[in-house]
Design brief:
- The protein is an alpha/beta fold and 527 residues long.
- It is 37% helix and 21% strand.
- A 7-stranded mixed beta sheet has the order 8-7-16-17-18-15-19, sandwiched between helices. A 5-stranded parallel beta sheet has the order 10-2-1-14-20.
């Protein structure tokens, strides 16, 4: 259905947008043509909001399907989901819910709220259930580690205080002095809490806990010691508000819904159109050149593609600021990811949705990476990803991008063998935890960092851009570039933090800035 919608939109005249005067040049708004590079969530969101406000847009997506990193693939009767585990904004109490509603992403979709969002198992039989109820969570944590009661109480207090935080309705660049003052007054009671936790590295914070098992459990929840400790606080806060559920149908249904909303608004989505360069004339972005030589003229260009590719290849490094040079030379990115996916012809009724599993012996991923613990997600037929009586198990873990990328390029045979060996070892690990699993496995797949880089072009295979370290979290990277007019950037490389909500917000912010440039009131509409 989506393919037909895309094709039909490309054949139709999309000049039905209202002929409203706008822009500093006085050009009628209907004559404005915005080309958006990248059909991921940021690009789709930007396109939707611009179409809502009367602009003609086209999205150029390099892959055969939209979605970018929000992607799923078929293996027999199974849909292996490469992205969606949980989504912030699934409850009307969150401002993000309104964004997903405007984008048509969650209307009519079943939302599954897991009270137990992770179960952590220790080597000696210890088990800890992480739940969205903060009172229960505090009791469970103290049961495991009474010696850490003071730290636990402090953590739960911070999660309660920060739970009401919602993202900004518009970027700070567009806020008046009065709006900024009101924002400061509204957030003042929790600013000290935010600052205290934001400026702590998670690993250093974790070292204060005396219980080794509780340290393991909290690390399993956050995932990287280099992150800001505020990440832990916000995850617990969002969970406590029950605004972070799972959408049945996963990434594919989510993306198709937003893409359908975009084409329904009159937008043109061109897949298999890989952008190679931004056309610049007299200091203005005037179009996009694709890898096959096709050019698309534009009055405005928005790049929602990989940041490094955009800045250093499409724009040849000509418009870099000191801030951007510092970020790309010194700031850390989310580590490269592996995903092992198994389609299993049996169900696991006693299994939690997400399980952090202590390994009896380390999993050796490459020369520099080994894991003593793995996170396993278990999907049944209620996920919409597999038939009744079957299950999908997905294991994600990090590894060396340089090692696996080089191996794939220089020794493809060894690369294929290493993938097979690693996948078989993971099946063996899961068979130990779920006896008999191996004999019921019907389909398997292993995506490596080289896979993610090939599919999305993301720098070093990083799936969410900048790692939210104390140095990066809250940092504002420029959405426009000095010396280049009518050009904007959106996506994870502009909005640090990672995750689908921030990609969508970044696309919305870019649309708002274009409307502000053209002296047009930004008006979103519900799907």
């Amino acid at each position: 259905m989506l393919t037909k919608a895309v094709e039909s939109r490309e054949l139709r005249d999309t000049a039905a947008s209202p002929d409203i005067a706008g822009g500093a040049s006085g050009t009628p708004l209907a004559a404005h043509k915005v080309i958006i590079i990248g059909g991921g969530i940021a690009g789709l969101a930007c396109g939707c909001y611009l179409q809502m406000n009367g602009y003609k847009t086209e999205i150029l997506e390099a892959n055969p399907v939209p979605g970018g990193l929000c992607v799923a693939w078929d293996r027999g009767p199974y849909v292996f989901d490469g992205c969606l585990r949980w989504l912030v904004g699934t409850n009307p109490s969150s401002s993000l819910y309104r964004i997903w509603t405007e984008l048509g992403a969650i209307g009519g979709r079943q939302i599954v709220e897991h009270g137990e969002f992770m179960r952590v198992e220790g080597a000696d039989g210890q088990v800890l259930s992480l739940t969205s109820d903060l009172d229960r969570l505090a009791r469970d944590l103290k049961r495991i580690a009474p010696e850490d009661s003071t730290l636990i109480d402090s953590l739960v207090r911070a999660a309660r205080r920060c739970a009401p935080l919602d993202p900004l309705e518009k970027p700070l660049e567009l806020m008046s002095g009065l709006e900024k003052t009101k924002l400061l007054v509204r957030c003042f009671p929790i600013l000290l809490t935010i600052a205290r936790w934001k400026n702590r590295e998670f690993g250093a914070y974790l070292a204060a806990y005396r219980s080794p098992f509780l340290r393991q459990a909290l690390m399993a929840l956050v995932g990287d010691a280099r992150m800001s400790a505020l990440v832990l606080v916000m995850v617990l806060g969002w969970r406590s508000r029950k605004i972070a559920g799972y959408l049945a149908g996963g990434s594919r249904a989510f993306v198709n819904a937003i893409a359908g909303r975009y084409t329904g608004l009159g937008g043109v989505l061109r897949c298999d159109a890989r952008a190679a360069g931004v056309i610049v004339e007299n200091g203005r972005a005037t179009g996009v050149r694709c890898a096959d030589g096709t050019t698309f003229p534009a009055t405005t260009v928005v790049s929602c593609a990989d940041g490094r590719t955009t800045l250093f290849k499409m724009l040849e490094g000509r418009y870099l600021t000191r801030q951007l040079r510092y970020a790309y030379n010194h700031c850390e990115v989310f580590p490269a990811l592996f995903q092992a996916s198994l389609g299993v012809n049996r169900v696991f009724p006693e299994a939690p949705r997400d399980l952090s599993l202590q390994l009896s012996r380390p999993l050796i991923v490459d020369k520099t990476t080994r894991h003593d613990r793995l996170e396993v997600a278990v999907f049944g037929c209620d996920s919409g990803l597999c038939p009744a009586g079957k299950s999908i198990l997905i294991v994600r873990f990090v590894g060396s991008f340089s090692y696996w990328s080089k191996l794939k390029q220089e020794q493809p045979g060894d690369y294929a063998f290493a993938k097979h060996k690693l996948l078989q070892e993971i099946v063996g690990i899961l068979d130990q935890r779920f006896p008999g699993l191996a004999s019921h496995v019907e389909h398997t797949d292993l995506a490596t960092p080289a896979t993610f880089e090939r599919f999305t072009g993301n720098w070093e295979g990083s799936i969410q851009g900048w790692l939210p370290t104390p140095r990066v979290l809250g940092r504002r990277l420029p959405r426009t570039l000095p010396g280049l007019k009518d050009f904007y950037m959106a996506g994870h490389w502009v909005e640090p933090g990672g995750g689908l909500p921030w990609a969508a917000l970044s696309g919305k912010y870019a649309a708002q800035m274009i409307c502000a440039r053209d002296k047009k009131v930004f008006v979103p509409t519900a799907a």
